[in-house]
Design brief:
This protein has 415 residues and is an alpha+beta fold. The chain has eleven helices and five strands, in the order H-H-H-H-H-H-H-H-E-H-E-E-H-E-E-H. The longest helix has 89 residues.
């Protein structure tokens, strides 16, 4: 029966009802005293107090407010009192019933408006004049119907406004709930995609570590047998073992870092295979224009593999979703703190049908960029292209190196 209201709302309704009573009490008492004396004035003040009490409950409990409004109206008609300023409270209660009441209360409010209009017309046209000794035989049916229609319009209008406000509020709340549910579903779906991407990264690292250990074992066995007959041949094998072990250690550290959901350091394999990757994609017919600006800076292994995987996924997506017949630009913009890579491709003339599910490519690239402490952006441009842009920091303290040797060692000739 009682609605949940904030303290400030309850306080506002109480203060508003008190202001309503204080505002109209002098007018009501003056009219009563001027008419028939203090007796009717006291009755008018009682009626005004009942209407003011209805205003206190109009939002807290619309049924109680409606009942108090009826009590005030019945007392007013029983005392044969004229229309008073306090009757405005009836309109406010009907609005509150239509706006805040439940389905049953709203229908009771509409019925009250209809019955109240009929009683008001009969009271104003017949009962009040008869109670004061007036002749009502001259009252025409037309006058009664006009008063009935006018009363019905006055009483139903605030109820209708309240009903419209209630419907608008309910629609807005429903849209907000639907939007929140949609966002929650998108967050859950994105979380699943990210977790699947993490699992894929872990499987990739497992494969790389297993391959590295196999190489180490094979090289160690070969060096052990070669050392007995030709010790000089064991040196290259030992160098291979050292390099492979370092890469394997970096991969293990990365795997542990990702399983801890860390965005900090974690060495990764290098990007020496970028040129081979581009050559492989060019064999498929994809035209790739590579450019590089700025002085190449050294990068940690973890950040190099992030660059490699993002380039790999972006170029692969061109084959799957873009216009592979038109050139693709791959740009590396080097700065003192890392590199900004951009892959721009043309969209297909006839895009795929809408409704495709969220894929792993873009979330995976974003996850890799974020894990390195960088940033990622992907989307269509105003020029009608699809652009993938990522900023990958170097991940290590900067050292003063010869830029030519750095370029040859770090990029494999891609500048």
């Amino acid at each position: 029966m009682f609605r949940a209201l904030a303290r400030r709302q309850r306080t506002a309704d109480l203060v508003g009802a008190c202001v309503f009573f204080v505002l109209f009490a002098p007018i009501v008492s003056a009219i009563g005293v001027a008419g028939l004396g203090w007796g009717p004035a006291v009755v008018d003040l009682l009626i005004l107090a009942v209407y003011s009490a209805a205003l206190v409950f109009r939002r807290l409990s619309p049924p109680i407010a409606l009942a108090l409004a009826w009590i005030g109206a019945i007392i007013q008609m029983a005392a044969l009192r004229d229309v008073q300023p306090g009757n405005f409270a009836i309109l406010m209660v009907l609005y509150a019933v239509g706006c805040y009441g439940n389905r049953i209360v709203r229908w009771l409010g509409l019925a009250s408006a209809g019955i109240g209009a009929l009683l008001a017309a009969a009271y104003l046209m017949y009962l009040l004049p008869m109670g004061r000794g007036s002749d009502v035989s001259t009252v025409s049916v037309g006058s009664f119907v006009f008063t009935l229609v006018a009363s019905l319009a006055v009483l139903v209008l605030p109820w209708t406004l309240g009903l419209l406000v209630n419907a608008r509020t309910a629609s807005r709340e429903s849209k907000a709930r639907q939007l929140e549910a949609q966002r929650e579903a998108e967050r859950a779906e994105y979380a699943v995609v990210v977790e699947q991407e993490r699992n894929r990264i872990a499987r990739d690292m497992h494969d790389v570590v297993a391959h590295s250990l196999a190489v180490v074992i094979a090289q160690a066995d070969g060096a052990r047998y070669a050392a007995a007959t030709n010790p000089a041949t064991a040196a290259p094998a030992l160098s291979t073992i050292a390099a492979t072990a370092r890469e394997a250690l970096a991969d293990v550290r990365l795997l542990l870092a990702e399983l801890r959901h860390s965005e900090a350091e974690g060495p990764q394999p290098s990007i020496h295979d970028l040129e081979r990757l581009i050559d492989q994609l060019r064999v498929t017919g994809l035209q790739i224009d590579v450019s590089s600006t700025g002085a190449v800076v050294p990068m940690s292994a973890s950040h190099q593999i992030a660059v490699y995987r993002i380039v790999q996924e972006a170029l692969t997506n061109v084959l799957r979703h873009g216009d592979a017949k038109r050139p693709v630009t791959l740009d590396f913009a080097w700065s003192a703190d890392g590199v900004r890579l951009t892959v721009a491709s043309s969209l297909r003339p006839a895009p795929a049908a809408s409704g495709a599910t969220l894929g792993h490519g873009i979330p995976g690239m974003r996850e890799r960029a974020v894990l390195t402490g960088g940033s990622f952006r992907a989307g269509a441009t105003e020029a009608g292209q699809f652009e993938v842009a990522a900023r990958i920091p170097s991940g290590i303290a900067q050292r003063t190196l010869d830029s030519d040797s750095t370029a040859s060692d770090s990029t494999g000739g891609l500048s």
